[in-house]
Specification:
3-stranded antiparallel beta sheet; 3 strands; globular
């Protein structure tokens, strides 16, 4: 299930070169399932992958299906400089 406002190419624009980016994800009534949660960069390869990640992290598929096109995912980034190893 992919919302009509998402394009697969949008996720690629979120990755910034030279920085570690930590993405946070929240969903409707997410607090009941431990959201918002930090999402690894590898999970943002596609919109479908983000939906799968949300389900893998404990959000009920039945709730997502019941909401239909009204289901939404909020994502925001916390970008920090890349840490340098000695």
């Amino acid at each position: 299930m992919v919302g009509p406002f998402w394009k697969e190419s949008d996720s690629a624009a979120w990755i910034k070169e030279g920085k570690q980016t930590l993405y946070y994800v929240d969903v409707p009534e997410g607090w009941m399932y431990g959201f918002p949660k930090a999402m690894p960069n590898s999970a943002i390869d596609s919109v479908s992958a983000i939906y799968e990640w949300v389900l893998d992290k404990g959000y009920p598929k039945e709730k997502m299906d019941r909401m239909g096109s009204a289901f939404y995912i909020r994502i925001w980034a916390n970008t920090s400089p890349e840490s340098k190893s000695p």
